[in-house]
Specification:
By secondary structure, the chain is an alpha+beta fold. It is 28% helix and 21% strand. Strand 6 and strand 7 form a beta hairpin.
């Protein structure tokens, strides 16, 4: 089922540390402030550093790119900091910048800022170690040059039919070159970054929250809120209690067991549904037993996904048909089969493999994703029923999860960061991808197909390559598809806002729902 805005369902106090965040008051211009409770805040305040849930929930409001993905129009690419663009040849794009765009510090954006923002320096990140996600989006960029103060030309290493979509996605945002250089270091820059978005960072306190203030010179129009406070409240029950008590205006990442408390309150709204974010179990296919594709197939076949969706998500999310989404357009293959539940076949595969009950580690974080721990416990029982001994190993953070040798399965999600298959599995498992860097799956055929797909502009050829890539994933099971992730929120009815079917929380003027109260 296509995920669009229309598919969205319209339907203990915080810690002492949070008291340091003052309650916002009505602004002089009549705009109100907003207090949002969410489980975590970004580790870094720069878009090249991460593309995870806390980052997109908050920093989407702080930065802009040359182009923008319109979540109100099936992720169509539209102008942003570039007012127009054109292809000069198969590898060269020319962008004409929007005039008089103001950074948060009041300076005016120029072509030099664009050249710097998309530079190798930015892609390599702190200490030049390459510890950024920028390569996932920008790895095909060869040169970025300023033709004049308002014109930029970007050349790719090879033809890339999706380059506009990539430049509109996360990690390609434009920052102030002068402000970055003035900061003197990445760490100093993280304390006071300067972008062009509708809100600017006012305060950032680790494990406490992030405060944004309206950037009234925003090129896209007047920001709807004077001030936004993102408060870190890890426990979902505490977020709901704070909302009921009036401490928060909006809470994110609502689990199923809180739906009734919200739905039965006339002063509150329950919002959300399936989002463009596929929950998976990553697998170290080099590990004992996990290196056997039949064990991986058995693990997938053992999972009753429909039961998980019904019981843990109230039936409000879906199981996709393969690692793809309808936003991929003419290369979306609706006929491709979804993963199936066949415990009998799973047990047969386990028995035939010679597996003797050795523990298979499952490295588990504490609800980084909604319903994560409960889902893991359910999965362990389903695997036990087919003869697999999965050992849950609590982890404190992803650094521990990724510590080598991994030799385990663990929870991940894959976001289709732009509307094209290159944005999803290939972004993670292709060159420069986060899961590729872990060296947990080696498929020369998949790598060859991905490279061809990325450069091809022939529709028929792309469909054939996409089909083959889906077949390889279904057969080799380098990861296990669980379901589309869910994004559920609760808010006061008096707050004008609605979520996108995606990870970003947009409080700016391009989200029409936020403008109702203006």
């Amino acid at each position: 089922m296509p995920i669009t805005r229309r598919t969205l369902m319209k339907t203990a106090a915080a810690s002492v540390a949070l008291s340091a965040f003052a309650r916002p008051t009505l602004a002089e211009k009549g705009r109100s402030g907003l207090v949002v409770a969410l489980p975590a805040q970004p580790d870094f305040t720069d878009p090249v550093m991460a593309n995870n849930t806390p980052t997109l929930r908050t920093l989407y409001n702080v930065y802009d790119a040359l182009l923008r993905l319109d979540y109100n129009d099936n992720l169509k690419v539209v102008p942003a900091l570039a007012q127009s663009w054109r292809r000069l040849d198969p590898t060269t794009l020319e962008f004409v910048l929007r005039p008089d765009v103001k950074f948060h510090d009041g300076s005016t954006m120029t072509a030099d800022d664009v050249v710097f923002s998309l530079s190798e320096t930015r892609r390599k990140g702190p200490e030049g170690k390459g510890a950024t996600v920028a390569a996932q989006y920008q790895r095909n960029i060869d040169t970025v040059v300023a033709a004049d103060s308002q014109t930029v030309r970007i050349t790719t290493k090879a033809p890339d039919p999706a380059i506009e979509k990539k430049l509109a996605a996360w990690s390609c945002q434009i920052v102030s070159k002068a402000a970055f250089e003035k900061a003197g270091s990445w760490q100093a820059w993280f304390q006071a970054p300067v972008g062009t978005g509708p809100y600017k960072i006012k305060e950032n306190r680790k494990d406490v929250g992030l405060i944004l203030e309206a950037h009234d010179d925003y090129w896209g129009g007047r920001p709807p809120f004077e001030r936004i406070e993102f408060r870190v409240v890890p426990e979902s029950a505490s977020r709901v209690n704070g909302l009921l008590a009036g401490d928060y205006d909006l809470v994110s990442d609502l689990p199923r067991d809180q739906f009734d408390a919200i739905g039965g309150n006339d002063a509150l709204d329950l919002l959300g549904g399936a989002i463009l974010n596929m929950r998976i179990l990553a697998i170290d296919t080099t590990a004992p037993w996990l290196s056997d594709p039949n064990i991986r197939r058995a693990m997938s076949l053992a999972i009753d996904r429909e039961l998980i969706v019904k019981q843990l998500w109230a039936g409000r999310i879906a199981v996709p048909n393969g690692a793809q989404y309808p936003i991929f357009g003419d290369v979306y293959l609706p006929e491709f089969p979804a993963v199936v539940h066949d415990p009998k076949r799973a047990a047969e595969l386990v028995k035939a493999s010679g597996y003797g009950g050795e523990p298979i580690p499952y490295r588990l974080l504490n609800n980084w994703y909604p319903n994560q721990v409960l889902t893991a416990q359910v999965l362990a029982e389903m695997w036990k029923a087919v003869g697999l001994n999965i050992a849950l190993q609590p982890m404190e953070n992803f650094s521990q999860v990724y510590q080598k040798p991994i030799g385990a399965v663990w929870d991940e999600s894959i976001v289709p960061a732009w509307p094209d298959p290159t944005a999803m599995v290939w972004r993670q498992y292709g060159p420069g991808g986060g899961l590729n860097k872990l060296a947990i799956w080696n498929s020369p055929e998949y790598q060859e197909i991905g490279a061809k797909f990325e450069q091809s502009s022939d529709a028929d050829a792309r469909r054939k390559l996409q089909l083959r890539s889906l077949e390889i994933i279904a057969d080799q099971v380098p990861f296990i598809i669980l379901h589309s992730n869910g994004g559920f929120f609760a808010k006061k009815k008096t707050v004008a806002w609605a979520p996108y079917p995606a990870l970003p929380m947009d409080f700016g003027p391009f989200n029409a729902a936020t403008m109702r109260g203006i």
